[in-house]
Amino acid sequence: MLGMNMNTIVSVVCCPPGAVAAVALVVVACALRLRGFRFNTRVTAASGRMEGVDEEKYSLSQINIDYAPARRRVRRAFLQIQQNLDHCLFKMVKSGVKADERYEINSRGLEIFSKSWLPEFGPLRAIIFYCHGYGDTCTFFFEGVAKKLAASGYGVFAMDYPGSGLSEGLHCYIPSFDRLVDDVIEHYSKIRAMSEYKDLPCFLFGQSLGGAVALKIHLKQPRVWDGAVLVAPMCKLADDVTPPWLLVQILLVIARIFPKEKLVPQKDLAELAFKDIKKRKLAAYNVIAYKDRPRLRTAVELLKTTQEIETRMHEVSLPLLILHGAADVVTDPSVSKALYEKSKGADKQLKIYENACHAILEGESDESIFQVIDDIVSWLDAH
């Protein structure tokens, strides 16, 4: 869900005098880190403590989940609670869909978690491959969206990136965005090659940072995919938050020294992304989502990726459905408009939802969420 683009990560460091102050803060923090100091890097969430959770489970939700075994332990403890949350996505489809979870070792020796949702009856119309947002997992809010798509006749496949969700790797550490994209391509290529799926249309579905992943997949495989659904995609920095060249160079140097440190300033994403206050509180139950400050190398990789995609929008040629909230302050809707205008394909559609924030699939009214999902299904049906 909470994909985050560099607008949020670098908004504090990009506009003078905040730029100088924030970079100075990171430099001082790094100097202290060299002297052995440790920092409390967790971002305080405005969504508050989880209701209906006993002290034991709440304490478990606060443990360090930098590595996959801890994330898997926490998810097991909260699974039943998550499935019974009072959110329309968890109530949408109760039958007619078969789900499967599994772990596989990829070519880099990492254990990757994946999940699929398939209709129990009837032939498949197409296959959808999901790319999740920053620090997120495919096992929380997206479950409801996937079940609705499966109930509409589509096979849905999703994975947690290395270092995200239930997959192996340091939590939300992206040493190379290109390598992450290659990991996703590797996993989804195996599924596409299966005899039962190889003749079906295949669509990418990218949400926020996952939009950047989906676009990078397409740019690496320009003739492979039949289309893409992009929800509030991270694909360009807004001009008013583009960091000055000098500050970028400073951060690049610091990131080489402390690539894994959680030192980049960040606001609470749930508060920014969810308009519906009740649904915003439920974001806290996504207990394996990354809630700490962004790691330095991750921030640099996201910045580099947005810069690359910005310069390559004209190369995007596959059929596109782009959906964005007009009031989104996490990823700029003007960026989606730029992608729509610059992409060279003729088959493209842009939907801007008035007054909607970033989490248009999770954080708006039930009626608005259903409308977005219906728009996605209608577009897929037409392709």
Automatic annotation (TrEMBL):
InterPro entries: AB_hydrolase_1, AB_hydrolase_fold, Hydrolase_4, MAG_DAG_Lipase. Transmembrane segments: none annotated. This is Serine aminopeptidase S33 domain-containing protein. Residues 123-364 form the Serine aminopeptidase S33 domain. It holds the Pfam family Hydrolase_4.
